[in-house]
């Protein structure tokens, strides 16, 4: 399996950039994170996501949605809201969320 970035989509679409620093407490995080990945995938306007963590501990997840309504449905999902509350209580030292509308998008992939 090769590593590939999320494809370029036809603009406009929406992206949410979640930058964070985690606490040392990992209790329950992997299970909740797996459930959130499953749950967001059920959103018809969800296009995909990319996530990375630096060796120093900065995590960045970029999630792509077809429109602001799709992102709003994710933001107001009750199970997601409970996970966000638990994240603030247990898993994150700090985080920042940026939401933007993508106006231009293109990609490149080397053949073979």
UniProtKB/TrEMBL annotation:
Question: Which SUPFAM superfamilies does this UniProt record tie to the protein?
Answer: Dimeric alpha+beta barrel (SSF54909)
The domain of life is: Bacteria
Q: What is its EC number?
A: 1.14.-.-
Q: Which InterPro entries match?
A: ABM_dom, Dimeric_a/b-barrel, Jasmonate_Hydroxylase-like
Q: Which UniProt keywords apply?
A: Monooxygenase, Oxidoreductase
Ranges where the ABM domain occurs: 15-85
The question of whether Oxidoreductase is a record keyword is answered with yes
According to the UniProt entry, its GO molecular function terms are: monooxygenase activity
Please name the top-level EC class of this enzyme. Answer: oxidoreductase
Q: Which PANTHER family match?
A: ABM DOMAIN-CONTAINING PROTEIN (PTHR37811:SF2), BLL5343 PROTEIN (PTHR37811)
- What protein name applies here? Antibiotic biosynthesis monooxygenase
Organism encoding this protein:
Streptomyces racemochromogenes
């Amino acid at each position: 399996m090769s590593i590939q970035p999320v494809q370029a989509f036809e603009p406009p679409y929406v992206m949410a950039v979640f930058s964070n620093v985690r606490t040392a407490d990992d209790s329950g995080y992997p299970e909740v994170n797996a459930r959130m990945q499953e749950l967001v995938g059920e959103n018809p306007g969800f296009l995909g996501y990319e996530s990375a963590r630096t060796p120093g501990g900065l995590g960045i997840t970029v999630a792509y949605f077809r429109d602001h309504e799709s992102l709003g449905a994710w933001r107001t999902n009750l199970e997601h809201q409970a996970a966000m509350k638990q994240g603030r209580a247990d898993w994150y030292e700090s985080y920042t969320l940026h939401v933007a509308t993508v106006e231009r998008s293109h990609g490149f992939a080397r053949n073979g």
